[in-house]
Design goal:
The complex is a heterodimer of chains A (110) and B (114). Chain A is mainly beta and 110 residues long. Chain A is built from no helices and 11 strands. In chain B, a hairpin with a 5-residue loop joins β4 and β5. Chain B is globular and about 40 Å long. Classes of the chains: A mainly beta (110), B mainly beta (114). Chain A binds chain B through residues 4, 30-31, 33, 40-45, 48, 50, 87, 89, 91, 94, 96-98, 100-103, and chain B through 32, 41-44, 46, 49, 51, 90, 94, 96, 100-108, 110.
């Protein structure tokens, strides 16, 4: 089966750093995606990892360990607008489909 | 650049009524197309995906159906809605054959079945 686990909720302070973890168990693996979804809106693509290591994009970084079935999204210099749900999704095999986690609701407080 | 449209944005329908949600993509050819449903506070559930005109794969048994009458048009339908069909319906597209199969989402349709 396919399984994606991530924490349900997290709270962090404006200006701080937060790490959102994701573990996955899939029948195959062709990459790990992170999406951001503000309340009432559609998910927007943040990052993609297929090789082990850290990918950095401005304030956001994403890490992957294929051997451990583990990824994290790191958000630096948190801003109030970062309050959103963050969805982890794995591509279990080459050929179109993604398996999504339930999402982590991040609340940024001042 | 590519854009994806969905309509209507919101819909309130009585139980037992029919449903038709439409999704269109601009600026790309032969995309993969997807329909997802997101219940309140839940993750995305893949309902259907399509790799070409008339080619539909269903992921979960349900009273919904999908059609792709044109390359960049994807339609989600039901003959008789159930209360459990309420949710946020998202259409997405991806580049067919790409190594990085990023999916890009439309704005969504919020459906409330009463």
């Amino acid at each position: 089966g396919q399984n994606i686990d991530q924490p349900t909720e997290m709270t962090a302070t404006e200006g701080a750093i937060v790490q959102i973890n994701c573990t996955y168990q899939t029948s195959g693996f062709n990459g790990l995606f992170w999406y951001q979804q503000h309340a009432g809106e559609a998910p927007t693509f943040l990052s993609y990892n297929v090789l082990d290591g850290l990918e950095e994009k401005g304030r956001f970084s994403s890490f992957l360990s294929r051997s451990k079935g583990y990824s994290y999204l790191l958000l630096k210099e948190l801003q109030m607008k970062d309050s959103a749900s963050y969805l982890c999704a794995a591509s279990p095999e080459y050929g179109n489909k993604l398996v999504f986690g339930a999402g982590t609701i991040l609340r940024v407080k001042s | 650049s590519q854009t994806i449209h969905q309509w209507p944005a919101t819909l309130v329908q009585p139980v037992g009524s029919p449903l038709s949600l439409e999704c269109t993509v601009e600026g790309t050819s032969n995309p993969n197309l997807y329909w997802y449903r997101q219940a309140a506070g839940r993750g995305l559930q893949l309902l259907f995906y399509s790799v070409g005109i008339g080619q539909i794969s269903s992921e979960v048994p349900q009273n919904l159906s999908a059609s792709r009458p044109q390359d960049r048009q994807f339609i989600l339908s039901s003959k008789k809605l159930l209360l459990s069909d309420s949710g946020f319906y998202l259409c997405a597209w991806s580049v067919q054959g790409a190594l990085q199969e990023t999916q890009y989402f439309g704005p969504g349709t919020r459906l409330l079945v009463l």
